[in-house]
Amino acid sequence: MSKIIVAGLGPGNPQEITPAVAQAAREADCVVGYKYYFQFVKPYLREDCPCIDTGMKKERERALQAFKLAQDNHTVLVISSGDPGIYGMAPLIYEMKRELGSDTEIEVLPGISAFQKAASLLGAPTGHDFCVISLSDLMTPWEVIERRITAAAAADFVTAVYNPKSHERYWQLYRLQEIFLQQGRAASTPVGYVRQAGREEESVHLTTLGALDPEEIDMFTVLIIGNSQSYEWQGRMITPRGYYRPQEAVQMKPGQQIMTDSFRTILRELKHPEIPLGHKWALLHAIHTTADFEMETLLQTDPMAVENLYEAIRQGRLKYIISDVTMVVSGIRKGALTRLGLQALCYLGDPRTEQMAAEMGITRTQAGIRLAVEEHPDALFVFGNAPTALMELCDLIRRGKARPAGIIAAPVGFVHVRESKHMVKPFKDIPKIIVEGRKGGSNLAATLCNAVLTFDDAAQLQPGRDL
Length: 467
What we know:
CATH topology of the largest domain: Rossmann fold
Strand content: 15-25%
Radius of gyration: 32 Å
CATH architecture of the largest domain: 3-Layer(aba) Sandwich
Number of strands: 19
Shape: rod-shaped
Number of domains: 3
Structural class: alpha/beta
CATH superfamily of the largest domain: Cobalamin biosynthesis CobH/CbiC, precorrin-8X methylmutase
Distance between the termini: 71 Å
Largest sheet: 6 strands, mixed
């Protein structure tokens, strides 16, 4: 019976040929392939077994030759580097069998693919979901390849790249790098590339997506781009599978685990995750509370504002938080206040506030801020509702009556809201967190305050300790 065995030889090291492929070589009546690869199977062949070379880029002719030889009840071994089903001969053999209407039996023997060999040399970069993309546009239009690149980048796949560069294809890898960065993959994402994997000329390199130089890449190189969880450790590239997360979860309350998972999701979807930790921590809280990714644009923090405010609390220099409305105080975590020895106050319900507002013809929130400044001029002031209250604080600062440790400016609405936020910006010496434009609210102001109170959890990305 005629038979074609399509065998993968692995990346080019005789030791990595599978026993099944070695046995198939012993049983073959003839071998069809590119002459460079004959050296890897000759040790297993019978002395009278011919090796038929079809030359480079002659894959269709190679397949047709195999079917012609198989017609005489021969067992034909078609050899392919790596795995024959991955950019190899296996699909072509099956397509030709269908085209010819042949009854020749087909068997495919897998081999170690170049990206698998490269991955093993780099460490463990393909530990989670991954995809493989070829940048060769000889048989696939570039528009299709680019859509696949965009999808892989957006979906946070670990991505192996075949045929990254040649003399004619000099720009495609630059474009892939650009797309990954545009889709939000961090510039610090680990990238490994291996040249001539499994062969004597083998070389292994580890860099980052931002630092990758396509000029160092050639057609004999395989790249592997990490996902948002990949990291470099001791010169190795690792993508965690997640086995340690269940152990982490045991130590967390259910609400804290949900919040942690939510933060991880938000972090993966940020367009620009390469931002200072304090700003990132506040931003994650803001998006978690609002589900509004426009916060990436709207949230502004002074340099080191979150860090400096947390340090002032830790050192005991900041003891009071003042809000414009009671809803902000309600949203500040009581466990955090107790743990840090803080008091959160709102003067809106103080009888003196209503009396002052009536006597002076100002809003109750303005009056509440005046009373608060008299008693706690150096507090952290948090605004989630009333622009008039924020404007009042600005006036008191200018008159030397208030010297806030910091300001969180997130009033919401349509009248004087933008102006109130602009008014606070000239106070360069006061750490500020500002939600630009009309958006804001008590819940947003409270969560930004909570971000400050829990900054010591930011580096571990473990929010919700005080839930």
